[in-house]
Every structure is written in C-alpha cells, then in structure tokens.
Amino acid sequence: MSVTRRFLVWSIGFALIASAPGASYAQARPGGQPFDEYEVKAAFLFNFAKFVAWPEGVVPAAPAPIVIGILGEDPFGAMLEDVTSSERVNGREILVRRLGPADDPRSCPILFISESEHRRLPEIFARLKGANVLTVGDVEGFTGAGGVIRLTREDSRVGLEISLAAAERAGLRISSRLLSLAHIVEFGSEHEAQR
C-alpha cells in the first residue's frame, strides 16, 4: 500500500477511535493532492471490520481472512486492495471478492452493494434475510431499503448513515464510536445520534 493510502486508512481509523465527524477527501492527502472519494470509502470499509462485532462463528477464526465482497459494478478499481493489502484486523488479512450473479452474498461478512444494483435492492435484501452480513452502500435510500450502513457524500466529506434496525436484524453490534459519527436511522424514524 502506498504511504498516502496508509495515511488515509490510519486517519480514518483514528477519526473513528476519536469519534471525530466524517472524513474529507478534498484536503486530507499529505502533499496537497486530494483523495478520491472511493479511496476514502475503501478506507471506511476496511475500518468497519474493527468497529463491528458479528455473532460468534460467523466470521471464521484466525488465521482465515475477513472477506469484503463487492456486489455489482466495482467503483473502487484497485483502491480497495491497495488500502487493505498490508493491513490486518486482529492479526487477520482482508480479502476482497467481487461477486457475480451466481455467487452467494451471504458468504461475505462485509458486503458493499454497488449503485448498479439499486433496482435489485429488495431482491438482494430478501436473499440476505437472516444472514449476519454488514451491508454497505452509497446509493440514496440504501438504509431505508434494508441496508445497514450508507456512505454519504456532502460537498467533499464522506459521512455515515446507519440503520439500527437493519444491524439488529443482521445480529450485528456496532461500536458506539462508529455510531457517534453517524446519522442514525432507527425503525423508520430518523434522529441524530447521541454524541
């Protein structure tokens, strides 16, 4: 991983630990070049593995890798592999898998659902019913359709919208540090997270 992407992963991880709001991709890179929006989103995906707890046995024990799946058109290119390539979560590597139509999305503890799958969201969430999968997307209405985390964009900042109901249905526990950074959508009514 490049030094600048390592800096991005570290800075987003630090923001999550320190409960600092959002991440700007316009001014974060050392040397003045702006980060790409999807570099920031890739760093968030990696860091979610540190701040979400799955029921025991869902994520295979170490040394097995933690799998991040991408369903639909991949907006990351090589960025996600670059962000995760030399990083570890609890001593475990991160494996990125791009899923085809025949692949089982339930096999990935973290699943990014691309904007290309927007029309298929009801079908995808029906297929994931009862699965302990952290679903992440960046399309409008993602959490309302049943997703757990929506990566939002406002100006040059990436923020988070989290559905507590979807997390509960998936059996996931989300760290209070992550929740403190997010706009919370709870059982269909929206309110700001308590800080």
Structure description:
30% of the residues lie in helices and 25% in strands. The N and C termini lie far apart (33 Å). Residues 16-27 and 187-195 have low confidence and may be disordered. Helix 1 (3-18) packs across helix 2 (37-51). The radius of gyration is 16 Å and the shape is globular. The strands form 2 sheets. Strands 1, 3, 4, 5, 6, 7, 8, 10 and 11 form a 9-stranded mixed sheet that branches. Strands 2-9 form a two-stranded antiparallel ribbon. It has 195 residues and is an alpha/beta fold. Helix 4 (121-127) links the parallel strand 5 (110-113) and strand 6 (134-137).
Q: What keyword list fits this structure?
A:
195 residues, alpha/beta, Rossmann fold, 9-stranded mixed sheet, two-stranded antiparallel sheet, 11 strands, 25% strand, disordered C terminus
Largest sheet: 9 strands, mixed
Can you count the helices?
A: 7
Question: Which regions have little confidence, pLDDT < 50, spanning 5+ residues?
Answer: 16-27, 187-195
Overall number of domains: 1
Considering DSSP H and I runs of 4 or more, what fraction of the residues is helical? 25-40%
CATH superfamily (homologous) name: Response regulator
Note the quaternary state here.
Answer: single chain
Per CATH, the class reads: Alpha Beta
- What integer is the average pLDDT? 80
What is the number of strand segments? 11
Briefly note the CATH topology name: Rossmann fold
Instruction: Please state the structural category.
Output: alpha/beta
